[in-house]
Each structure stands twice: as structure tokens, then as C-alpha cells.
Design a protein that fits this description.
Layout: E1 2-8, E2 11-16, E3 27-35, H1 38-46, E4 60-68, E5 80-83, H2 93-96, E6 120-123, H3 125-130, E7 133-135, H4 142-145, H5 148-161, E8 168-172, H6 176-187, E9 192-196, H7 200-209, E10 213-215, H8 222-229, E11 235-240, H9 245-254, E12 255-263, H10 278-282, E13 286-289, H11 295-306, E14 316-320, H12 325-334, E15 339-342, H13 346-351
Parallel strand pairs: 8-9, 8-11, 9-10, 11-12, 12-13, 14-15
Antiparallel strand pairs: 1-2, 3-4, 3-6, 3-15, 4-5, 5-7
Helix pairs in contact: 5-6, 5-11
Bound molecules: zinc ion (2 copies).
Length: 352
């Protein structure tokens, strides 16, 4: 089979490998669609402590079960599924609390185990037992199903920050995640969603996703614009999906007194980010961060996709063959569009 291995920082290599053999507790999955995540770009650019080279990265996976070990009972060849990212150990305190996304071991697909930028991927025992493997509706394409993992993280963020209908929400960054937030917020009854985004293409995408107002921070004063749009109060909720220290600092300014702030994107390389903590106190802000998603929200994300509760196809702007994975990464890095999805099955289809 063909696989794209990360062999060093910013080095992706197309490798010929044997189709991996599975043991009695594992599943072999044929990958049909795999999304390029912001965290993949971070690992590509900066490496990661949890990754030894060479490693096939990628965790936004949708595909077809082609083989199951004899002790696997929940799945059979032919099942069409989409995956969560985490490989919970099942034993630590977080796993015991159904918070496998905070598992102390911190194992994830594409980190300690090979991930999805390949024709086939092995789902290891712990993943089969404790991870999220969700069947998708017959009518759901693999391409859309691959959005289940990032969208589950969006749902987890909304859950944690506790946005209510009728609110005014500012979303920093209108990439795939930002646009999913914008669309989901509108669907959930936000009164006004304001996007903050530099790139012109993404400003357009934010509008298409339902943003009522789009601010270009390179040309406008974001804090002033938000104040003007909220009777000088500031936003009820601010969500920062852009990996930007400036945006994180500013989010505290644009939130109203007793408002809420969700920090969603980590900053790499790690830098100190001096913030005005007085905002926490005198504005009595609730500031939360989220990372990943629990299994039940991954299940919910699949439901949203199966039932078409949002126009999920609008979040995918580019698709690539497996051979063009490098191009997919470059496109994602260029911030030209939203989600880039690689389709390892595409080459096969052309041959048929
Ligand atoms: Zn992801
Ligand atoms: Zn655990």
C-alpha cells in the first residue's frame, strides 16, 4: 500500500509499505477520506514530543472496515465508519469518568500509532475498545464523515463555554473550525455572530457560514467595531479559533462584563502571552479552554452530519489524492480555503 510518512520536520515521504497485519483485537480500515487538521500542520512544522519518526500522521479519518480480529464483535467488514482521535487507555481516572479525551496516557491516532494518511490504517486494541468508532448513514459520504472529529471538538467547545440562544458571539478565525462554529452558533440560535478574519477568501466563507458581521483586523479596530455592534457592551461570548496570542489577548477586551471566552487553538511554538488578568476579575469573565472531545460528542457530531443539520460540504474547499498530500498540507498552510481532505481511495477509483 501507499502511505505518507512524516520523516522529520516538514518532511513528508510517499512510502510503499505492506498492508499491515492485524491481531485478534484489531481492525483494519481502508481509509477513504482524511482531513488535514490544524494540529497536523503544527506537527508537520514543529514536531511533537509524542511522535517518533517515521510516523504516518492524521486523525480525521473516515473509511471502511475491511478486516476484523476474531475477538472484535462490534464491527464487520463492509461497515462504513468515522473515527474520533483519542486512544483512551480505559483505566485512568479520566477514562473512568468517560473523559477519554483527557486520558493521562495521551495517546491518539497519528501520534503513538500510525494515522490516516495511508491507504489502510490499523485500529489498535485500545482504540477498538475505548475509542470512538461510529457508523455513518448510507447516504453520508466519507468526505463529509471525515469532518466528524473536528466538528466534535466544536461541539465540545460550545458545551464547555455554555453559549445560550440570543447571544452575540465573536469568533476569531474563520478557517474550517471557525466557520463550523459560526454555522453551528447560528443554527443553535445565536442572535448575532461576528467573525474576525484577515484573509479575504475566509471573510467570504465566514459570511457564507452565516456571520452577520465580518471584521478585518488589518483594516479595522476590532474592539471598537464589536462595541459599536453591541450597544457598547461587548460580546456575550468570544471564541478564539485562530492560533494567535494577539487574538487571545484581545478576546478579553471584546467580551462584555460577565461574558465568556473560549480559547480553542493552542499557540506553537509555546510563548509567554502576557494578559491583563484584571479583566477576569473586574469583568468577572468565565475563560475556558477545550481540547478534543468526549466520545458522546463525537457521536453527536456524526448525527449532525448524517442528518445534514449544517451545510457540511461548504467546509471542504479542496480534495487531494494521497500522492498529493504534501500539496494538501501546503494549501492548508496557505489559508486559501477551509478544510483540505485527502482521499486515498481516489486513485483506485480512477483505475476501475
Ligand atoms: Zn483534528
Ligand atoms: Zn486513560
Amino acid at each position: 500500500m501507499q502511505a505518507i510518512a512524516l520523516t522529520g520536520k516538514q518532511q513528508l515521504e510517499l512510502q510503499k509499505r505492506d498492508v499491515p497485519a492485524i491481531n485478534q483485537d484489531e481492525i483494519l480500515l481502508k481509509v477513504h477520506a482524511i482531513g488535514v487538521c490544524g494540529s497536523d500542520l503544527r506537527v508537520y512544522n514543529h514536531g511533537d514530543d509524542r511522535i517518533d519518526y517515521p510516523r504516518v500522521i492524521g486523525h480525521e479519518i473516515a473509511g471502511e472496515v475491511v478486516e476484523t480480529g476474531e475477538r472484535v464483535t462490534r464491527f464487520k467488514p463492509g461497515d462504513r465508519v468515522t473515527l474520533g482521535a483519542h486512544i483512551p487507555c480505559g483505566e485512568c481516572i479520566y477514562c473512568q469518568q468517560n473523559e477519554g479525551h483527557h486520558c493521562i496516557k495521551g495517546h491518539s491516532m497519528g501520534y503513538q500509532a500510525d494515522g490516516g494518511f495511508a491507504e489502510y490504517v490499523v485500529l489498535p486494541k485500545k482504540f477498538v475498545q475505548n475509542g470512538s468508532i461510529q457508523k455513518i448513514a448510507d447516504a453520508t459520504s466519507y468526505e463529509l464523515a471525515s469532518l466528524s472529529e473536528p466538528f466534535s471538538c466544536v461541539l465540545s467547545g460550545l458545551d464547555e463555554v455554555g453559549t445560550k440562544p440570543g447571544e452575540t458571539v465573536v469568533v476569531y478565525g474563520a478557517g474550517a473550525i471557525g466557520c463550523m462554529y459560526i454555522a453551528a452558533l447560528k443554527r443553535m440560535g445565536a442572535a448575532k455572530v461576528i467573525a474576525v478574519q484577515r484573509s479575504k477568501t475566509r471573510q467570504q466563507k465566514a459570511k457564507e457560514a452565516g456571520a452577520d458581521l465580518v471584521i478585518d483586523p488589518s483594516a479595522e479596530n476590532t474592539t471598537e467595531k464589536v462595541k459599536a455592534a453591541t450597544d457598547r457592551l461587548g460580546a456575550d461570548t468570544v471564541i478564539v479559533t485562530a492560533p494567535s496570542a494577539d487574538a487571545q489577548r484581545e478576546s478579553l477586551e471584546v467580551a462584555r462584563t460577565t461574558g465568556k471566552v473560549l480559547l480553542f487553538a493552542g499557540i506553537k511554538p509555546v510563548t509567554e502571552n502576557p494578559i491583563n488578568t484584571n479583566h477576569f476579575i473586574y469583568k468577572q469573565l468565565k475563560v475556558v479552554g477545550t481540547h478534543g472531545a468526549p466520545r458522546y460528542l463525537h457521536m453527536e457530531a456524526v448525527k449532525w452530519i448524517d442528518e445534514g443539520l449544517l451545510d457540511f460540504s461548504s467546509f471542504i474547499t479542496h480534495t487531494f489524492t494521497l500522492e498529493d498530500t504534501e500539496k494538501a498540507f501546503q494549501t492548508a498552510l496557505s489559508k486559501e480555503g477551509l478544510k483540505c481532505v485527502v482521499k486515498p481511495g481516489e486513485r483506485d477509483r480512477k483505475l476501475v
